[in-house]
Design a protein that fits this description.
The chain is an alpha/beta fold. The protein has three domains: 10-56, no CATH class; 61-192, Leucine Dehydrogenase, chain A, domain 1 (Rossmann fold), CATH 3.40.50.10860; 211-372, NAD(P)-binding Rossmann-like Domain (Rossmann fold, 3-Layer(aba) Sandwich), CATH 3.40.50.720. 48% of the residues lie in helices and 15% in strands. It has 17 helices and twelve strands. The strands form two sheets. A seven-stranded mixed beta sheet has the order 9-8-7-6-10-11-12, sandwiched between helices. A hairpin with a 5-residue loop joins strand 1 (61-70) and strand 2 (76-87). The relative contact order is 0.13. It binds NADPH dihydro-nicotinamide-adenine-dinucleotide phosphate (NDP) and (2Z)-2-iminopentanedioic acid. (2Z)-2-iminopentanedioic acid binds at residues 94-96, 118, 168, 170, 198, 348, 376-377, 380.
């Protein structure tokens, strides 16, 4: 799997694999970063002397805890909670919380590891972390969700704080869950500490445009990649996988920038709407009614395909916004054969190593998640800034900041890729620029 690593990095990867047995997603994320780092270690020998590679792969702290709760039938349920505080040289730990039955330590660690470099790329003062639980929110009532969140926070609160660790949402965690989590934090600490969470509701300390930020940011990044090729989203047909927070607002901004999204999905199947996805209907079905994506097709002229791959639908641009490893080598080949020329990852690590190889070999513009989806966490840092100054910015002002941040991330990745001899390779650009910033700080702060 993958290309050969630099001779100094191969043993380090083997050590990571041995020390973290069975955590395949974590191994995959580490390998992907290591594949970019050979020239960086040659250029900065101090990183080797200070064992930055070995240190950065070992989380600063990992918390695993029991989450007991009682369901609506009076039955006791037991889940497992996680928070991996990976790196804090640039700022307090920062990263989302995921509720999904697939969550285990390997998933939380891959997400936390990616978050270190993503957060560094934003240029804002935030470290890297991730958390979550194997709790499955599907089909659960509001009160079950609340009881679960309260039990989860009854344990986790002691590890959080606006200067310590600041969680946000991710899969299965949106404003409703953040509300219950924040409420329980407030209750047990007896502090109204707004900046301990981001993604809050607008009535209680949330920031305008945070909900939209990840999806909008992906569209901005995509647009920047196309501009380099003297193109734009105008007239482009797009497929966006998923139909959650990131997907919905990626679709909205792609439409505003002149593209047409014709397909989106959930884990059961996908819809194909040749007229372009009707955003209002999508929001009604997903955000308000919390139904499956099939309900969208039931109420429109769109067709619904149960199972199958959304990537079989012809498109100019593909935007995976669901989950890790959702787009494999075969999907990539289908997309390339159908004329797809750009991919921006809204999800974290949605493309498998085979898929990435196929895209790069075909000259597809490829924006990796840690750069393309960084608009969410960047706007979280803006939410922290507003909370700290007890201020509240307008939507337009916040969106203009987000747009400038995404342009900055794009340009940093593009420039760095060129500087290291792989022009147009945003994966190398993102990994090298993110890693170098964190590594310099790790050297400066000494052996901690
Ligand atoms: P949501 O829970 O709002 O939506 C997730 C979507 O992805 C749903 O449509 C869901 O379908 C689908 N999905 C989830 N798991 C799977 C799976 N195993 N197979 C197929 N489809 C799946 O989450 P978000 O939109 O917030 O997150 C989506 C991705 O974006 C994740 O990778 C997340 O880490 C990443 N991300 C999120 C950010 C944020 O600010 N929220 C920021 C940066 C990245 P179903 O309902 O069937 O499960
Ligand atoms: O993957 C991510 O960047 C997120 N889920 C958002 C993290 C955050 O702290 O806003």
């Amino acid at each position: 799997m993958g290309k050969a690593l630099d001779e100094k990095l191969e043993p380090s990867l083997q050590t990571v694999i041995q020390r973290n047995p069975g955590e395949t997603e974590f191994h995959q994320a580490v390998r992907e970063v290591f594949e970019s780092l050979g020239p960086v270690l040659a250029k900065y020998p101090e990183f080797g002397e200070h064992k930055v590679i070995e240190r950065i792969c070992e989380p600063e702290r990992q918390v695993i805890f029991r989450v007991p709760w009682v369901d609506d039938k009076g039955q006791v349920q037991i889940n497992r909670g996680f928070r991996v505080q990976f790196n804090s040289v640039l700022g307090p730990y920062k990263g989302g919380i995921r509720f999904h039955p697939s969550v285990y330590l390997g998933v939380v660690k891959f997400l936390g590891f990616e978050q270190i470099f993503k957060n560094a790329l934003t240029g804002l003062p935030i470290g890297g972390a991730k958390g979550g639980s194997d709790f499955d929110p599907k089909g659960r009532s509001d009160s079950e969700i609340m009881r679960f969140c309260q039990s989860f926070m009854t344990e986790l609160w002691r590890h959080l704080g606006e200067y310590i660790d600041v969680p946000a949402g991710d899969i299965g965690v949106g404003a409703r869950e953040i509300g219950y989590l924040f409420g329980q934090y407030k209750r047990v600490t007896n502090r109204y500490e707004s900046a301990v969470f981001t993604g809050k509701g607008l009535d209680w300390g949330g920031a305008r445009a945070r909900k939209e930020a990840t999806g909008y940011g992906v569209a901005f990044f995509l647009n920047e990649m196309l501009k380099v090729r003297s193109e734009g989203l105008e007239g482009k047909t797009c497929s966006v996988s998923g139909s959650g927070n990131v997907a919905i607002y990626a679709i909205e901004k792609i439409h505003q920038l002149g593209g047409k999204v014709v397909a989106c999905s959930d884990s059961d199947g996908f819809v194909h709407d040749k007229n372009g996805i009707d955003l209002k209907l999508l929001q009604q079905v997903k955000e308000i009614e919390r139904r499956r994506i099939k309900a969208y097709a039931d109420r429109s002229d769109a067709s619904y395909i149960s199972g199958g791959s959304i990537w079989s639908i012809p498109c100019d641009v593909a935007v995976p916004c669901a989950t890790q490893n959702e787009l494999n080598g075969n999907d990539a080949k289908m997309l390339i054969n159908n004329g797809c020329s750009a991919v921006a990852e809204g999800a974290n690590m949605p493309t498998t190593p085979d898929g990435i190889r196929a895209f790069l070999a075909a000259g597809v513009a490829f924006g990796p998640g840690k750069a393309a989806n960084a608009g969410g966490v960047a706007t979280s840092a803006l939410e922290m800034q507003q909370n700290a100054s007890r201020d509240s910015w307008t939507f337009e002002y916040t969106e203009s900041k987000l747009s400038a941040i995404m342009e900055g991330i794009h340009n940093r990745c593009h420039r760095t890729a060129e500087e290291f001899g792989t022009p147009g390779n945003y994966i190398n650009g993102a990994n090298i620029a993110g890693f170098t910033k964190v590594a310099r700080a790790m050297v400066a702060l000494g052996l901690i």
